[in-house]
UniProtKB/TrEMBL annotation:
Protein's UniProt name: Polyamine aminopropyltransferase
Residues annotated as binding spermidine: 63, 87, 157-160
Keyword Transferase: yes
Quaternary structure, from the entry: Homodimer or homotetramer.
Biological processes per GO annotation: spermidine biosynthetic process
Name of the gene encoding the protein in the UniProt record: speE
Pathway entry: Amine and polyamine biosynthesis; spermidine biosynthesis; spermidine from putrescine: step 1/1
Protein family per UniProt: Belongs to the spermidine/spermine synthase family.
Lineage top rank: taxon: Bacteria
Length: 275
């Protein structure tokens, strides 16, 4: 492998490689190893601790689906909580909704926000300057277990359950989320590529089932999250997300549509068997 190649190490015996045309930034932050580089196919790419996090070319698929499925299913999402999401893509999509009055974002690593504003400006598109945002640099688990605020939608845009992101897949985190959801509120979270990370699906389903009255998964295929479709988890105490028709659609999107919204809840048999 060329010394200018980047090999993802999420899986122990298989991965994907990127040619690094130019390394823009590399450092060990307070919490994790971070690298940003240019690639001819995917534009700018960011990886944390050996795992690809986002690319300029396909980020919209993941960010739109993790955001608009719960947001469009809620009749009036006014207060939104984002856990993680330091690249700003989820924040950008949340702020497209005119009902939103306040967004709280809790990101553990301030360096990710700072560097993504510099190297991935199209991810946030100025969203970090929006007066509706309250940015909190801190631990997401502690925040949901200590806050007295209530939120209509909670979105967990975390890394995989290793390193700093591991705590965002625990029962303590889910219990804190339940406590800070308003009546009729919905929680969603990324949950890995189910074909390769089936244990994550089963574990999340069990833990969410112990905490929330309703829970399930929906799917999306993101090219640089390799290995098949991603499963995105959802949970609520009162809303059965697959049965809710998305409300009026007036958003500027590149992937999400009302038809995609309805179809994404159809799970392949192998995912259903994992559950």
């Amino acid at each position: 492998m060329s010394e200018l190649s980047y090999l993802e190490t999420l899986h122990p015996s298989w991965g994907q490689a990127f040619i690094m045309d130019e390394v823009l930034f590399e450092s060990k932050t307070e919490h994790q190893h971070l690298i940003i580089f240019n690639n001819a196919q995917w534009g700018r790419v960011m990886a944390l601790d050996g795992v690809i996090q986002t690319t300029e070319r396909d980020e919209f698929i993941y960010h739109e689906m993790l955001t608009h499925v719960p947001m469009m299913a809620h009749p009036k999402p006014q207060r939104v909580l984002i856990i993680g999401g330091g690249d700003g893509g989820i924040l950008r999509e949340v702020l497209k909704h005119s009902d939103v009055e306040q967004v709280t974002q809790v990101e553990i690593d301030e360096a990710v926000v700072t560097l993504c504003r510099e190297y991935f400006p199209n991810h946030s598109q100025g969203a970090y300057d929006d007066p509706r945002l309250n940015l909190v640099i801190g631990d997401g688990v502690d925040f949901v277990n200590q806050t007295q605020q209530k939120f209509d939608v909670v979105i967990s845009d975390s890394t995989d359950p290793v390193g700093p992101g591991e705590v965002l897949f625990t029962s303590r985190f889910y219990q804190g989320v339940q406590a800070c959801l308003a009546e009729g509120g919905v929680f969603v979270a990324q949950n890995g590529v189910s074909f390769l990370q089936g244990d994550e699906v089963r574990t999340s389903a069990q833990r969410l089932g112990l905490t929330f009255a309703k829970r399930g998964f929906y799917t999306v295929a993101v090219p640089t999250y390799v290995g098949g479709i991603m499963t995105l988890a959802w949970a609520s105490d009162s809303v059965d997300l697959p049965s809710v028709m998305p409300r009026g659609f007036e958003l500027a999107t590149r992937y999400y549509t009302p038809a995609v919204h309805q179809a994404c809840f159809a799970l392949p048999r192998y995912v259903a068997e994992q559950l």
